Amino acid sequence: MRWPAVCAWSGTAILPEQPMSATSPCVSVVIPTRNCLDYLPDAIASIGPEPTIEIVVVDDGSTDGTDAWLAEAARRDHRIRVIAGPGTGVSGARNAGVAAARAPLLAFLDADDVWLPGKLAHQTAFHAVRPDVVFSFTDYRHVGADGRDLGTCFAFWPGIRGRLEPGGWTVMAQALPVLLAENVAGTSTVMVKRDELIAVGGFDGTLEAAEDWDAWLKLSARGPVAASRREGTRYLVRPGSTLRQYDRLLAALPVVIARHGNGPDLAGSRRAAQARLASARAEEARRRGRPATAVRHRIGALFGAPSRRGMRDLLSDAAAMVTRRS
Predict the structure, then answer these.
(1) Are 194 and 135 within 8 A, CB to CB?
(2) According to the model, what pLDDT value does residue 3 have?
(3) Residue 116 carries which DSSP code?
(4) 215 plus 294 within the same structural domain
(5) Within a domain: residue 287?
(6) Residues 296, 297, 300, CA angle at the centre, nearest 5°?
(7) pLDDT band of 53, cuts 50, 70, 90
(8) How far apart are CA 293 and CA 299, in angstroms?
């Protein structure tokens, strides 16, 4: 689960329909931002010069000069439309962008991420030949604030790696079990049909974290989902995320699992998701210097999803517990 350390919000959904016209763009790129001027120019530049798109930037109350920079950027680039966010958080900002968008396809880009060359064209071309696909996503690469390569998302998750073809797109008719077991759809890689996102109510502002995962799970129950091993995005991993933000994530995860993990056909995926939650709780306990609590959660995670990594983490926390008691 990824959420930015500085640009973090929560909000509510209001999604009116937008009328379409003959001059409507083919894709609307939705960028929510708040006080991310250090990163926003690179994000917009990474979209490229494609003329048949619009770039909807939702400024959700920035105080760092973003408004002046966006005004000049919109003057130079007619594709950029700037709207004021509702000030209720990232869900509300994204939903405001969705409501303002004029294209049938939406692509999301966080203000501190960048797309890799060809991402937009590759994904748009796929949706043109597979209009039945509700949404698509790609692999992405984590990059530290110092530029250090931290690896790709799919490299970490064995389930999704085993399902995808080496090249091109893999269409999953039943993606809900896959995405419930492994939260691998990075928001800045997603392209989605606008009417489908509106139909499920957009992003849930009652969740203070994991609202993107919740949205993809809702959408995956409505039709085919496609994924590609191709890296589409460079995700910035910022240091210094606070324990309060992590607490919000841990509070949201069980809510999302309970919403979407019902049914006997989802039992295995639900166990995997709960094991991931147990691992996250173990990490929190480790950060707080509570090795005994970490060990308890590690054991729960291993029961739900046995892995060598999980065993290594358990042994590490057990050693820390013994050291602390000695």
Answers:
(1) no
(2) 25
(3) P
(4) no
(5) yes
(6) 95
(7) very high
(8) 10
